[in-house]
Amino acid sequence: MHMFSGPADREDGLAACFRQLGAVCVEHDILNSGPDGDLADKLIFDRALAKLRSARGSAWGPPCRTFSRARSFDDRGPPPLRGPTGKDRYGLADLSAENAAKVRTDTALAVNTAAGLDLALSLGQPFVFETPLPAKGVCSMIDLPEFEKVLEHPGVLWLEVDQCRWGAPTRKPTLLLLHLVRPPVFAVECSTSTRPAGEGKTWRAKCDHEPQWFWQDGAWTLGPHLPLIGKSRGSFRTKAAAAYPAEMNRWIASALSAAALPDGTRPLADPVSPTAFSDALLEASHKQASGKRARVHFDRPLKPIDRDLREEEDQQAIGGLRRCAASVARLPVLLARAAEVAERLDRYLEQKPEIAEFVLGLLGRRVECICKRGSTKGCVACHLSQVVQKFREEFLESLGSNGAIPQADLGDLGSALRPEVFRAWRGFSGDPDDEVERWLVDGAPCGVLESPAHRGIFPVVDDLPAESAEELEGRHDRPEPEDEQLAVDEIQGYVAKGFVRVFPSEAAAREYLGRPPVFSRIMVLSKTLPDGHVKKRVILDCKSSGVSGASVRGERSFIPRVVDVAFD
């Protein structure tokens, strides 16, 4: 839930970020629902609290217009409406009727917020609470007595962060109270704190930008950002900076989603760009080696890359090869379902300890079927297949599926991978990629005549093929394989397993394809294992035949990097 969400139609707002992670965010704000969304109304707020009981987490950002630290800047900011201590915290005595009404409304919102945070603590729910960083001599929302219980809770973290660390154009010092939520990776734990009460940990993430000169209000100002004081075009500058920056919304959504995952699952790593992190490491190493940033020159300029666009595409894609924990955590439903299945399979293995004993006893042994030698008694390979089949059935039953796929849909070819298992798991877990199960039946597209359908796993790219499919047709360059007998043996093995379709002639293959076939040289890769057994793998030399040049990627996959282990 997002309390005091602001306008609901923001494309990079918190709700949109939750949707990108596969989660649903319920928003509450008077701007979206009119009087029915007035959280200062006790009855309406109590209805929202009833929904909070069934939520997995919450974000709170109550209006700070009467608590803002900007009210301490005399005539350069709005006038103060509250005092720092005593009853003045609920409003000064000489306020105008308009300002007194603002204070009453904001006080009601603050008191209700404190009650909501108390409820979240009692329910053991994660939350993120945001308010301007308290300043000396200025009444902060957390100075109200109603927040004492929240501040004294040992599990509530105090995070002082400047929003420019998330890309805000101004510094905007902010306080975040976190419960069961990890601070961002750029925050550091501090031994000293301005925290008024409680023993919870304090974290800090201050502005690290270089100072520069700004022209504002007829004078030059030196600093890392324009200060949020004074007016611009008739409105106080603090009003324009009220909305969270997009990167902050993405962090809140990711951190809350990770915190709301079931026990035993790994939390989502903070979505700070690994590219920026690796670039920083590279720059630091260059500076250490030479005292200045090393430069690399190329005879031919490299293709220009829009790094901002690339990072945005990377954040939106689910991914999978790089930072696997972060990729999987973008699908909270999947993780929740995985925990359910894991619990059931654990119980199954606990009830049948002989399975673990049998499987562990096979470690380091080569298992071969002896049935073809005329005996089925005591065949370890067959017994292992039966154990795996029983475990597969238990797995499919936990998904609510028998895994059966009509033979007519399976076709006449097979695979070592089970399409019915992929389909059952995808349907149960809400995995968006429904392509793999089809590939295991019909074959995977290689990007020449057909490309994989986009399912949001990787960013889309518009590659152009070096050759057209028509240019490949009819090529009869058929060099012999490097080791013909090995290639024949391996291909015959695939045929025996039902993995390869055989045609009696080239004409028959042409008739089946509806076009001339393209021939690629067969290559056999051999590797000698520690036990002396030679493992062989057959591949096609698609580069020589031109197939590689005629194919396009369709999507840009993420290649793992060394520093990714630090983020996972």
Beta-strand residue fraction: 5-15%
Strand order of the largest sheet: 2-1-3-4-6-5-8-7
Q: Measured on Cα atoms, how large is the radius of gyration?
A: 31 Å
How large is the count of helical segments? 22
Largest sheet: 8 strands, mixed
Let me know the number of strands.
14
What's this model, at a glance?
By secondary structure, the protein is α/β, with parallel strands linked by helices. It is built from 22 helices and 14 strands. Helix 1 (14-20) packs across helix 7 (246-259), helix 11 (332-351) crosses helix 13 (380-398) and helix 15 runs antiparallel to helix 16.
Describe what this molecule looks like in 3D:
This protein is an alpha/beta fold and 568 residues long. Helices cover 37% and strands 11% of the residues. The strands form 4 sheets. Strands 2-1-3-4-6-5-8-7 form an 8-stranded mixed β-sheet. The two termini are 27 Å apart. The model is unreliable at 263-282 and 284-294 (pLDDT under 50).
How do the helices and strands line up, and which of them pair or pack?
Blueprint: E1 2-3, H1 14-20, E2 27-28, H2 30-33, H3 42-52, E3 58-60, H4 97-123, E4 127-132, H5 148-152, E5 156-162, E6 173-179, E7 188-190, E8 202-205, E9 212-216, E10 219-223, E11 231-232, E12 235-236, H6 237-240, H7 246-259, H8 274-290, H9 307-316, H10 324-329, H11 332-351, H12 353-360, H13 380-398, H14 407-410, H15 419-429, H16 435-442, H17 469-472, H18 484-496, H19 506-513, E13 521-528, E14 534-541, H20 542-545, H21 547-550, H22 564-567
Parallel strand pairs: 1-2, 1-3, 3-4, 5-8
Antiparallel strand pairs: 4-6, 5-6, 7-8, 9-10, 11-12, 13-14
Helix pairs in contact: 1-7, 3-4, 11-13, 15-16
